[in-house]
Amino acid sequence: MPQACDPVPEAAARCLASALASVSPGDLSAARAQMGFSLAWHIVLACLGVGLPLLTLGVEWYGVRTGRPEHRLLARRWARAMGVLFAVGAVSGTILSFELGILWPGLMGRFGQVIGLPFALEGFAFFIEAIFLGIYLYAWDRLPPRAHLLTGVPIVVAGVASAFFVVCANAWMNQPRGFTLREGRVDHVDPWAAMINPAAPPETVHMILAALMVACFLTASVYAVALLRGRRDTYHRTGFLVPFTLGAVAAPFQIAAGDWAARFLAHYQPMKLAGIEGVYRTRSHVPLTLLGYADGERLRYGLEIPDGLSLLVGYHPGTVVRGLEEVPRDQWPPVTGVHLSFDAMVGIGTFLLAMGVWLLLLWWWSRRTGTALLTPRGTRPFLLLAALAGPAAVVALECGWCVTELGRQPWIVWGVMRVSDAVNPAPGLMAGLWVVLLVYAAMTAGTVYVLRRLTRTTPVPVAPQERDVQEYPVV
Predict the structure, then answer these.
(1) Domain residues for 444?
(2) What total of structural domains would you count in the chain?
(3) The whole model's pTM is what?
């Protein structure tokens, strides 16, 4: 490690550059692994924080309207689970905020004033969500049903706003705006221009829809298992149909948003798109390659659709797609990982869309025959796949973030700062990784335990004509 730095700014800058240059590959890998694992863990809770309040309010409103106790109980259980997940998410989010400063001082030290605005606004949204969540949980039996329902509206709005502000900060890393660099120093900072950058609209829409789908399909998958075990009462049918239907409705919009995001890359981050699709040479009539892996400067063993990528990018087979040859090799992203992650995300999205179409066909058949939806006869294959839809949505979410983050490599701020220039040069980052893994393992076990205990607190009311059912986990 270098010696202590001179307090003079120029000397300090030289000292920091020397320290960053001394970072070992192991330290950089440990920092990336720690941040990646923390984000992968937290993002699932963040998605539930966006989608679960909307589901809860929707079921509560339906229960108020119909007067059915099953619906009110379903909403109350989801609300309790929502409170637990919010508390755990607050802990993991706090860990992430510390990791930004500890692991990446080069980024935050230079650009903190540029991207501080969305994080500050996210803090306000977080406190609004926390305040009204407390009111919503505490006032369940203390306010009239309609008044209680209104107290949940700010939770939904604040949850979506939190996701929006955080993703705006990430979008800035893909399209840095709102500052100028003079001799390595940040000048003329415009925080609003930085937050509302060109990548913000497609990235925020894509992420918010993904969060809604993860929350919906993950919740519905639990009740799909219950239905497979024979619990076909109103409580469990509603617990499955409400989130699954909402997730199915969001699926086609998500595919359209994904297409918007991909065409955005073609114009603003062509090298990321080239890495995603394994395009090495700039040319027209570029095929769309499914699967395969990078070997040298080509994708091997992939299924090619002639002119497919050119058609998707510019709606014409003659559209020119820029290739990785336009930048030095040390600026290429890891093509195999990014490409396969993208294919997995798109494949799972298509599967979820198909499941929505299948549910629509089941609804149409039940209307035609006059039978109840999701009767035991003939629906078992659908429910088996529906039970897998929740975990599949989580996998698609994680793959999408791999595409976003790995596709930007080696840049932490696109075209401005490399990841290796932002990492903390101090030793011991590997030890921090192991500590974080232990902390998250404990939080995972504790969260699962508490959620399972919550499912055994209140019996499920059923209509007299329905047979008795046993308790089943809600989330």
Answers:
(1) 25-199+424-475
(2) 2
(3) 0.85
Domain shared by 403 and 452, yes or no:
no
Rounded Cα–Cα distance for residues 324 and 409 (Å): 13
Measured CA distances, 303 to 336, 341, 354 (Å): 14, 16, 21
Tell me: do 46 and 175 sit in the same domain. yes
pLDDT of residue 25: 58
Evaluate whether residue 290 is within a structural domain: yes
Among 195, 133, 193, smallest CA distance to 158 is for: 133
In the block, which residue shows the tokens 């335990």? 449
Are 221 and 335 members of one domain? yes
Is residue 362 in a domain? yes
| Residue among 164, 167, 355 nearest 251 (CA) | 355
If one compares 305 and 19, the residue with the highest pLDDT of the two is 305
Reported as a pLDDT band with limits 50, 70 and 90, residue 457 is low
Q: Which residues contact 111 (CB under 8 A, 6 or more apart)?
A: 176, 179, 186, 413, 417
φ/ψ of residue 320, rounded to 5: -85, 130
Say whether both 376 and 239 belong to one domain: yes
CA 114 – CA 211 distance, rounded (Å): 26
CA angle 36, 348, 260 (to 5 degrees): 80
Query: 389 pLDDT band (50/70/90 cuts)?
Result: very high
Q: Which two tokens stand for residue 106?
A: 């080069």
Name the residue type at position 426.
A
Domain ends where: 359, 378, 407?
Answer: 407
CA 4/CA 18 separation, integer angstroms: 11
Query: Are residues 56 and 136 both part of a single domain?
Result: yes
Position 412 pLDDT exceeds 60: yes
**Residue pLDDT, tens place only, 252-294:** 999 999 889 888 988 888 889 888 888 888 888 888 888 888 8
